[in-house]
């Protein structure tokens, strides 16, 4: 079910997989251990605390295994059906594969699944999210951009309502659609797995509207116009069930902008329903699990409580968070009411599926999740957010960068019955759909990789692609 082109590997010194396995995974594992340790230490229940200590020990061992390039061991059976999938693939890789010389995509998924088993096999920590603290903390720190967007959103929706019934200027609508998608795109530049490279300050810079305008030239492939034409045509055809799906990526700010896009699509009637697809376990540090959706809504529902209650850190530094103005509270409350309304009407729904945390690429979706694929065929447009989803769409294979996107996504391409739009800031090696010579030119830019053989320009989220494939 996979392309013949070889996949990126943690053993290849020119791949981003190489420093990822050697430096970034240990950092992520250290954060995991620290968080678990903190919760275990704060736990009053002796039985739960003892069990927690065992989990921390397991996680410390896991970090040791990664750093000392030990063999990958089978995932322990925690009763979930994906254990067999993980272990079958591990067996197929040969029984002696070790952390620092294995396919990147499989092993990174395996890493998070391994972490998960330490919790899922416990009695008291089954649903513990070891990244929850980090996710909510970063969302809090994106306050300026959150407020700016809430204001713009209220303005926009108010105008839309005032103009209801009047003829629409399609060109203007297209520009607005593209801008909304670009907001949603750049929200992906701020995932937490890259935080090991970016400071909070860098993140804030990435989130403001000025930064967004400046970044437009960094979108290497921009098929947003085609996606708009499709939704507009469906709207004109007048069907009363026109769904858009979003295969989510990160929680916090990215989920916030995903919901802004969802609200916009529903308010403009470019869609009548938006279905969101979260992960079913803590995943790649910051990916959305259902509880993150609830946490975000709670924050936006009571913005004063969320932003003005001093955090532990504030208390340590004797700092009082800045108060929100009445207007800011009103704008955030407006947003919450919009989302709650859509949610209540069933127009905005969350639909988990464990296939999103399987190790393989989406080339396997038709085989692994036929029901899901049938369901996605009934959607007007399926938006895949982020780097990992893109890597899975194109099977993380070392394609020539001029390969058409429609070819690199294999069975989900033309004829699949699924209209795919990928919004991805580049944080890996693979990229397709570029013009001839473009990759070479980017390699010659500062930190672009030069003649090292590494596509370094594609590692840090500075460049992006919005790639579309018409499947029906
Ligand atoms: O290498 C960068 C990385 O951490 C990859 O491991 C992963 O593909 C990705 O970023 C996560 O990013 P995103 O949240 O955009 O999927
Ligand atoms: Mg992610």
Automatic annotation (TrEMBL):
<dbReference type="InterPro" id="IPR036075">
    <property type="entry name" value="ARMT-1-like_metal-bd_sf"/>
</dbReference>
<dbReference type="GO" id="GO:0006974">
    <property type="term" value="P:DNA damage response"/>
</dbReference>
<keyword id="KW-0378">Hydrolase</keyword>
<dbReference type="Pfam" id="PF01937">
    <property type="entry name" value="ARMT1-like_dom"/>
</dbReference>
<dbReference type="GO" id="GO:0046872">
    <property type="term" value="F:metal ion binding"/>
</dbReference>
<feature type="domain" description="Damage-control phosphatase ARMT1-like metal-binding">
    <location>
        <begin position="20"/>
        <end position="442"/>
    </location>
</feature>
<protein>
    <recommendedName>
        <fullName>Sugar phosphate phosphatase</fullName>
        <ecNumber>3.1.3.-</ecNumber>
    </recommendedName>
</protein>
<comment type="similarity">
    <text>Belongs to the damage-control phosphatase family. Sugar phosphate phosphatase III subfamily.</text>
</comment>
<dbReference type="GO" id="GO:0016791">
    <property type="term" value="F:phosphatase activity"/>
</dbReference>
<keyword id="KW-0464">Manganese</keyword>
<dbReference type="GO" id="GO:0005634">
    <property type="term" value="C:nucleus"/>
</dbReference>
<keyword id="KW-0479">Metal-binding</keyword>
<dbReference type="InterPro" id="IPR002791">
    <property type="entry name" value="ARMT1-like_metal-bd"/>
</dbReference>
<comment type="function">
    <text>Metal-dependent phosphatase that shows phosphatase activity against several substrates, including fructose-1-phosphate and fructose-6-phosphate. Its preference for fructose-1-phosphate, a strong glycating agent that causes DNA damage rather than a canonical yeast metabolite, suggests a damage-control function in hexose phosphate metabolism.</text>
</comment>
<dbReference type="InterPro" id="IPR039763">
    <property type="entry name" value="ARMT1"/>
</dbReference>
């Amino acid at each position: 079910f996979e392309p013949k082109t070889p996949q990126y590997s943690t053993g290849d010194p020119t791949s981003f997989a190489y420093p990822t396995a050697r430096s970034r995974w240990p950092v992520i594992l250290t954060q995991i251990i620290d968080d678990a340790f903190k919760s275990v230490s704060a736990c009053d229940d002796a039985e739960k605390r003892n069990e927690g200590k065992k989990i921390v020990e397991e996680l410390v061992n896991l970090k040791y295994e990664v750093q000392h390039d030990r063999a990958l061991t089978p995932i322990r059976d925690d009763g979930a059906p994906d254990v067999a999938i993980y272990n079958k693939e591990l067996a197929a890789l040969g029984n002696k594969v070790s952390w620092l010389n294995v396919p990147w995509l499989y092993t990174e998924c395996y890493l998070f699944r391994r972490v998960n088993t330490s919790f899922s096999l416990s009695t008291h920590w089954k649903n513990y999210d070891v990244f929850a603290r980090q996710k909510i903390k970063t969302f809090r720190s994106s306050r300026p951009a959150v407020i700016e967007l809430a204001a713009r959103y209220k303005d926009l929706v108010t105008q839309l309502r005032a103009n209801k019934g009047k003829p629409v200027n399609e060109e203007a609508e297209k520009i607005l659609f593209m801008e909304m998608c670009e907001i949603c795109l750049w929200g992906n530049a701020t995932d937490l797995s890259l935080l090991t490279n970016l400071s909070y300050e860098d993140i804030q810079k990435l989130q403001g509207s000025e930064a967004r305008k400046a970044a437009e030239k960094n979108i290497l492939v921009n098929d947003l116009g085609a996606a708009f034409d499709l939704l507009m045509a469906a709207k004109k055809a007048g069907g009363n069930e026109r769904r858009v799906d979003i295969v989510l990526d990160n929680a916090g700010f990215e989920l916030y902008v995903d919901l802004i896009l969802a609200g916009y699509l529903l308010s403009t009637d470019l869609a009548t329903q938006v279905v969101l697809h979260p992960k079913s376990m803590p995943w790649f540090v910051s990916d959305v699990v259902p509880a993150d959706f609830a946490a975000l809504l709670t924050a936006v529902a009571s913005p004063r409580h969320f932003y003005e209650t001093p955090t532990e850190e504030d208390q340590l530094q004797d700092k009082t968070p800045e108060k929100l103005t009445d207007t800011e509270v009103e704008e955030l409350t407006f947003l919450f009411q919009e989302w709650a309304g859509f949610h209540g009407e069933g127009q905005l729904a969350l639909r988990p599926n464990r296939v999103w945390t399987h190790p393989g690429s989406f080339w396997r979706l038709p085989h692994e999740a036929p029901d899901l694929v049938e369901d996605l065929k009934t959607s007007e447009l399926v938006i895949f957010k982020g780097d990992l989803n893109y890597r899975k769409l194109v099977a993380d294979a070392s394609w020539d960068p001029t390969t058409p996107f429609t070819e690199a996504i294999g069975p989900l391409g033309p004829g699949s019955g699924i209209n795919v739009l990928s919004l991805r800031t580049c944080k890996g090696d693979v990229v397709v759909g570029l013009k001839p010579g473009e990759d070479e030119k980017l390699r010659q830019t500062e930190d672009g990789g030069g003649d090292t053989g590494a596509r370094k320009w594609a590692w840090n989220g500075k460049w992006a692609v919005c790639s579309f494939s018409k499947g029906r």
